[in-house]
């Protein structure tokens, strides 16, 4: 399996620098040199950071936190009007970020990096990287080789070891300050029960025999759900102890999930495809988005309405559970990789052109 090929559909979202990083990492001697450099070199301060390629955006209390290329992390305390750069110990591209409260948060990225902050994103510490992640995977696979399916998992782990530590993490989910998961390429999934001080390889707990890439993880009530390439859908009903494959309504890749306050589930991905389930993923209905661009982000707004955002900058608002959409263009006029609602109710987005303060959803005339 070739990581660059599998991720080609997301190349425009990641940006040229992220894709080039994957291509260079495919050459063994370049991969080793690149790994040592970006894992040891702190992100460089730059006045151009707000215009950098940014891929993730989260709320930390009233603060907005954006992450992206070269380890850039940006903070805004005025609803996205101004931004300042945080201190980050690596210069690897970051793909996603989540906070469980105003202080505690995590970010993931290329080369298997997991970062943690305890001060609302102002400073970060590395908790995991690709070299350590693969070593853990091999160690656990060797320990469990005698168990059913153990030989196959050991072979996969050794293959990843030989291939190098270049595999990215693409999403994460933490339920609180202690319990969380990170997921990514080649069925990579790691679990922590101590806030990231230690990590457990969790691949054996996932019904993904082809080792398909995992693009998203979210909770819906007590369930945990995963999405990935080729229509992959998985659900855990036992607090993450096992993830079973669900019947998928779609053969293309899903890049994300949204669980609503009313208990509905939305899976979204390539070519404007979005699907709705009100029975925890047991059955799905297609949402008629009216667009062909890849959907990159989804959000439930304060008033309960839904927002889907595409890579092309299209913002789709729905006030009737996805039965119809009011389409607009992002005020930035550029791509959108992630979108968040700020404390004042306005929207902020990030993408290939950096950060943008977007339109207030109340402009639609809805409360």
From TrEMBL:
GO terms for cellular component: photosystem II. It holds the Pfam family PSII_BNR. One of its GO terms (molecular function) is hydrolase activity. GO terms for biological process: photosynthesis. Residues 1-33 form the signal peptide. This is Glycosyl hydrolase. Residues 67-126, 167-246 form the Photosynthesis system II assembly factor Ycf48/Hcf136-like domain. PANTHER family: PHOTOSYSTEM II STABILITY/ASSEMBLY FACTOR HCF136, CHLOROPLASTIC, PHOTOSYSTEM II STABILITY_ASSEMBLY FACTOR HCF136, CHLOROPLASTIC. PROSITE patterns: PROKAR_LIPOPROTEIN. The lineage of its organism: Bacteria, Pseudomonadati, Pseudomonadota, Gammaproteobacteria, Pseudomonadales. CDD domains: Sialidase_non-viral. Keywords: Hydrolase, Photosynthesis, Photosystem II, Signal.
């Amino acid at each position: 399996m070739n990581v660059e090929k599998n991720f080609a559909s997301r190349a425009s979202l990641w940006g040229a620098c992220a894709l080039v990083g994957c291509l260079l990492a495919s050459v063994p001697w370049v991969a080793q040199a690149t790994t040592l450099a970006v894992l040891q070199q702190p992100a460089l301060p730059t006045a151009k950071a707000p215009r950098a390629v940014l891929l993730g955006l989260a709320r930390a209390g009233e603060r907005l936190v954006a992450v992206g290329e070269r380890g850039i992390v940006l903070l805004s305390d005025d609803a996205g009007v101004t931004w300042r750069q945080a201190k980050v110990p690596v210069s690897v591209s970051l793909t996603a970020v989540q906070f469980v409260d105003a202080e505690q948060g995590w970010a993931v990225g290329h080369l298997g990096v997991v970062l943690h902050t305890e001060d609302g994103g102002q400073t970060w510490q590395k908790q995991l990287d690709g070299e350590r992640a693969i070593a853990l995977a091999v160690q656990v696979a060797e320990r469990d080789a005698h168990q059913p399916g153990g030989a196959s998992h050991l072979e996969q782990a050794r293959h990843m070891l030989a291939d190098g530590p270049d595999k990215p993490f693409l999403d994460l989910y933490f339920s609180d300050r202690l319990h969380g998961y990170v997921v990514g390429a080649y069925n990579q999934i790691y679990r922590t029960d101590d806030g990231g001080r230690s990590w457990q390889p969790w691949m054996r707990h996932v019904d993904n025999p082809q080792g398909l890439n995992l693009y998203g993880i979210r909770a819906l009530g007590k369930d945990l759900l995963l999405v990935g390439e080729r229509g992959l859908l998985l659900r855990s009903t036992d607090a993450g102890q096992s993830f079973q494959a669900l019947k998928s309504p779609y053969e293309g890749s899903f890049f994300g999930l949204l669980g609503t306050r009313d208990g509905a589930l939305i899976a979204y991905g390539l070519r404007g495809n979005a699907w709705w389930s009100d029975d925890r993923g047991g059955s799905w209905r297609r949402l008629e988005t009216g667009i062909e661009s890849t959907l990159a982000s989804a959000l439930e707004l304060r008033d309960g309405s839904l927002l889907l955002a595409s890579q092309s900058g299209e913002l789709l608002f729905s006030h009737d559970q996805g039965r119809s959409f009011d389409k607009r263009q992002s005020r930035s006029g550029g791509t959108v990789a992630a979108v968040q609602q700020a404390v004042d109710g306005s929207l902020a987005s990030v993408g290939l052109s950096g950060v943008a303060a977007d339109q207030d959803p109340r402009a639609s005339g809805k409360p």
